[in-house]
């Protein structure tokens, strides 16, 4: 059991330490798999699990232990991206003024939009509908956290709603890479300006 101490000596047993090392190795492998899949899903053609295993230098057996199917892997790539996006909101508010935090968060939204587009194009319709349904709540909560901080500070207009922002940023995932690079920053800048409170 994690944290089990040998008698009263205060020393963690070797078997527990070994288990902890194995868990840490497994977590590192999982992260490497997700990063490789995130990179490879952008390439033309169907994502191949053997290509993912080769890219991160692990055996296919190790990959299959983490992700038995291609859809399992792609779904987790998307969920991981959502988790990173959602976790960024409070971190940014801790170090930035609310409106600046919102602008920085929108920069991350552009990267999320690429992953969403590529993953949703590669999985079955039922899978992406399920992923979209489950990610809407956490992303909406992150947007509301940023907007609420901005409203409290007087920098964000009082009538701005999280749903408004989600509808507008959802269009980013419909753009190809060239258009996202060319238009994305400008579109997000326009959105920030539209959310800004205008004081007489």
TrEMBL record:
InterPro entries: Homeodomain-like_sf, HTH-type_TetR-like_transc_reg, HTH_TetR, Tet_transcr_reg_TetR-rel_C_sf, TetR_SbtR-like_C. Residues 1-28 are annotated as: Disordered. Residues 48-67 bind DNA. The keyword Transcription regulation applies. The keyword Transcription regulation applies. Keywords: DNA-binding, Transcription, Transcription regulation. Residues 27-85 form the HTH tetR-type domain. It holds the Pfam family TetR_N. Gene3D superfamilies: Tetracycline Repressor, domain 2. One of its GO terms (molecular function) is transcription cis-regulatory region binding. PANTHER family: HTH-TYPE TRANSCRIPTIONAL REGULATOR BETI (PTHR30055:SF234), HTH-TYPE TRANSCRIPTIONAL REGULATOR RUTR (PTHR30055). This is HTH tetR-type domain-containing protein. It comes from Kutzneria albida DSM 43870.
